[in-house]
From TrEMBL, chain A:
Record SMART domains: UBCc (SM00212)
Highest taxon in the source lineage: Eukaryota
PROSITE patterns reported for this sequence: UBC_2 (PS50127)
Record keywords, A-Z: Ubl conjugation pathway
Domain UBC core: residue ranges: 4-152
CDD domains for this protein: UBCc_UBE2W (cd23808)
Name of the featured protein: Ubiquitin conjugating enzyme
Disordered: annotated segments: 129-152
TrEMBL record, chain B:
Region annotation Disordered: where it falls in the sequence: 1-40
Protein name (record): ubiquitinyl hydrolase 1
Species per Swiss-Prot/TrEMBL record: Cyclocybe aegerita (Black poplar mushroom)
Catalytic activity: Thiol-dependent hydrolysis of ester, thioester, amide, peptide and isopeptide bonds formed by the C-terminal Gly of ubiquitin (a 76-residue protein attached to proteins as an intracellular targeting signal)
UniProt cross-references to CDD domains, sorted A to Z: Otubain_C65
Record-linked InterPro entries: OTU_dom (IPR003323), Papain-like_cys_pep_sf (IPR038765), Peptidase_C65_otubain (IPR019400), Peptidase_C65_otubain_sub1 (IPR042468), Peptidase_C65_otubain_sub2 (IPR042467)
GO cellular component terms given for this protein: nucleus
Source taxonomy: Eukaryota, Fungi, Dikarya, Basidiomycota, Agaricomycotina
Domain OTU span(s) in chain numbering: 118-327
Sorted UniProt keywords: Hydrolase, Protease, Thiol protease, Ubl conjugation pathway
Length: 152, 329
């Protein structure tokens, strides 16, 4: 683990511990600097009312220069939210996790972005190519070259 | 000696980036692509968009530009590439790579050699080459300074002020301080022994810039500073920040978030002006455009209060920056 990576994660963790997480986001496990787990709930009216999902972050020694590997946990009975940008294996197609990652972002900033991605969802459905992608997907979502179509 | 553009010649183009040309970076030279064909713009996402995967295992669906990007990505992932930044090499090594290509580039390279720019320090073509080249040349300038103590003290004072710029632009201390420390401690070690009791030498500077953690940290701080300078002086840059592929005018904040604060995104005129201004630097960009029939345009950026201060000199070929070395250095 690179020293910059460990220092930065230690600072992020201290901030989480002193200021708490935003509403709907809960830190579940951050016992080392390689993998953190959070739960995410969407507050207020949404397609995901009353549901909680577990989000996993994996960090390499180049964090925060390189992005964390982020996905929803789909083991131990947990499932990924049904969403047009979330595959059933938990992988997420979001530009900020790939080509538009910046060290300006933090673990909490990613959680908040994904929370609002769920909040703004109009229709619960999987990506059109879900089955094909999940059949061949690498273990680490960072190894997928997602193609982002601007649908804003 | 510094060449300035001949006033009788047409003005130097202000938009340096030429996206329709294949970057002439040696990392990509083996990749054949018809450079005359019009490349359709890449459909890049906006800062907040969250988008869908659309089967890019079907190569026939990809535009040439996407294929090119993917090719670069694959090479970066799988093939040992050139170091992040290399030792100084004779200009003839660069020249040999153009011998079967454009005569105009050869003429420009020969002109540089004839005018004393006989060496080049090459950087990896990873989209960070401008920041890495500039960072290296900046620190190296203190090593070769005749008044090291004064040069280092001035630089540290300017750098210390830049943290204010970065903070005011909204980047948290937690985010920038480790990157900032890497740059500052390297410059300090020009005159003050580091924690191992060592002063910086050319060899140690090269080793530091070849180590990903140090090198990328410095690139990242320079990116933050560039973005902050653009955001805080937005009235100077609004209307000039364009999407690198579509050339459409962008708003300053989206531009900074997508193309400046992100690793691997090339710098253009706006970023060069902003960074040289934030660091109070004089910089010359020797522009090999493959068009001039004689001579080479040197694009001047003058931001040192001492207008005559010796500029750092970078070599620009469409899509790539290296450090140009004069034989008097």
């Amino acid at each position: 683990m690179g020293s910059v990576s460990a220092r930065r994660l230690a600072k992020e963790l201290r901030e989480i511990q002193s200021e708490g997480c935003p509403v709907g986001i809960t830190l579940v496990d951050a016992s080392d600097f390689s993998k953190w787990l959070f739960t995410i709930e969407v507050m207020g009216n949404s397609q995901y009312q009353g549901e909680a999902y577990t989000l996993q972050f994996r960090f390499d020694a180049q964090y925060p220069i390189s992005s964390p590997a982020v996905q929803f946990v789909v083991t131990d009975g947990k499932e990924a939210p049904v969403h047009p940008h979330v595959y059933s294996n938990g992988h997420i197609c979001a530009s900020i996790l790939g080509s538009e990652w910046s060290p300006v972002l933090s673990v909490i900033a990613v959680c908040v972005t994904l929370q609002s991605m769920l909040a703004s969802c109009k229709k619960k459905e999987r990506p059109a190519d879900n089955d094909r992608y999940v059949r061949t997907a690498p273990d680490n979502p960072k190894k997928t070259l997602f193609h982002y179509d601007d649908d804003t | 000696m510094t060449q300035t553009p001949d006033p009788s010649l047409p003005p130097t183009p202000r938009a340096i980036r030429k996206p329709k040309e294949l970057p002439l970076d040696s990392d990509t030279e083996d990749f054949n692509m018809d450079t005359d064909s019009e490349l359709p713009p890449l459909h890049l996402p906006s800062a907040s968009s969250l988008l869908t995967f659309s089967g890019n295992d079907e190569l026939s669906d990809l535009t040439p530009a996407q294929l090119y990007e993917m090719n670069q990505q694959l090479m970066n992932d799988s093939v040992p590439t050139r170091p992040l930044i290399d030792a100084v090499a004779p200009m003839s090594t660069l020249r040999s790579e153009y011998e079967n290509g454009s005569a105009a580039f050869l003429n420009e390279i020969d002109w540089l050699i004839a005018n004393g720019y006989d060496s080049v320090r090459r950087t990896r073509g990873d989209g960070d080459c401008f920041y890495r080249s500039l960072g290296f040349a900046y620190v190296e300038s203190f090593l070769s300074s005749l008044e090291k103590d004064f040069a280092v003290a001035s630089s540290l004072s300017i750098l210390s002020g830049t943290t204010e710029i970065v903070s005011r632009a909204g980047i948290e201390k937690m985010v920038y301080e480790d990157f900032y420390e890497q740059l500052v401690s390297l410059i300090q070690s020009v005159v003050t022994p580091d924690s191992h009791g060592l002063l910086l030498t050319s060899e140690r500077l090269l080793a530091a810039f070849q180590e990903a953690e140090v090198s990328n940290s410095i690139v990242m701080y320079l990116r933050f500073l560039t973005a902050a300078q653009i955001r805080l002086h937005r009235e100077d840059y609004e209307g000039f920040v364009v999407h690198p592929d579509t050339k459409e005018i962008m708003d300053v904040d989206s531009f900074c978030a997508q193309f400046v604060e992100t690793m691997g995104k090339e710098a253009d005129n706006v970023e060069i002006q902003a960074l040289s201004s934030a660091l109070h630097l004089n910089l010359d960009l020797a522009y090999l455009n493959g068009v001039r029939t004689s001579g080479v345009d040197f694009i001047p950026f003058r931001n040192d209060p001492d207008n005559m201060a010796k500029p750092l000199v970078l070599l620009y070929r469409p899509g790539h920056y290296d450090i140009l070395v004069h034989n008097t250095r």
